[in-house]
Amino acid sequence: MVNPPNEQRRNEKSRRAILDASLELCTEKGYAAVTVEGIAARAGVSKKTIYRWWQSKGAVILEAVVDAADASTDFPDTGDIAADLHAQLTQVVRLFEDPRSGRPLRALLLIESHQDPGLAGQIRELLVDSRIATFNQRMRRAQDEGQIVADVDLDVVLDQFYGPIYHRLVLNMDLPDHDYLGKIVDYVLAGITQG
């Protein structure tokens, strides 16, 4: 497993410059063409500084993507599970479509995670697990409120809601639009709602 960066040794201004530079370069050149040297040059820091805080280019870009995802993919709780699911799925699609975060996020999930088991673990820990936990919490509230059946398997439901997005990413197809996301929500909820 890759060691996490030492947070106490970081200078926040340099950290932010590095993360911003990594996303800018991914947007301009594509993930594959980005190097640690290029990130360092753009950020105005040494390559040694980057390697002191991160193990690889992928780890730097993962942290930048996590920052972007944290700011844009909250799971709302308005009391209306259908509206909340639609809003959250829309946010996920927007994250993937965002020119600044989408390209590196796709590369991390579809390429780097399959080549680097340590980075795959970090992706799961920093980007995926907390979002699954938030999904499960929101769905349990919907169960408690009687909006969905109590004995539904939340792992299966998770796959039904998010699978269409990742299926399209893997096959390099257009992501679901607003109307299609609404249909996903309607179809899945029809199978797990009371009465």
Give an overview of the whole structure.
The structure is a single chain. With 195 residues, this protein is mainly α. The chain has 2 domains: 7-62, Arc Repressor Mutant, subunit A; 69-192, Tetracycline Repressor, domain 2 (Orthogonal Bundle). 72% of the residues lie in helices and 0% in strands. It has helices spanning 12-29, 36-43, 47-53, 57-72, 81-97, 102-115, 117-144, 154-170, 178-192. α1 packs across α4. It is elongated. The chain starts with 11 loop residues before the first helix and ends with a helix. The model has no long low-confidence stretch (mean pLDDT 91).
Short descriptors:
2 domains, mainly alpha, 195 residues, 9 helices, Tetracycline Repressor, domain 2, single chain, Arc Repressor Mutant, subunit A
Short description:
The chain is an all-alpha fold and 195 residues long.
Biggest pleated-sheet summary: none
| Helix count from the secondary structure assignment | 9
In total, the number of domains comes to 2
Shape: elongated
Hey, roughly how much beta strand do the residues contain? under 5%
What share of residues is helical?
over 70%
CATH superfamily of the largest domain: Tetracycline Repressor, domain 2
pLDDT < 50 stretches: none
Q: Averaging pLDDT over every residue, what do you get?
A: 91
Q: What Rg do the Cα atoms give?
A: 19 Å
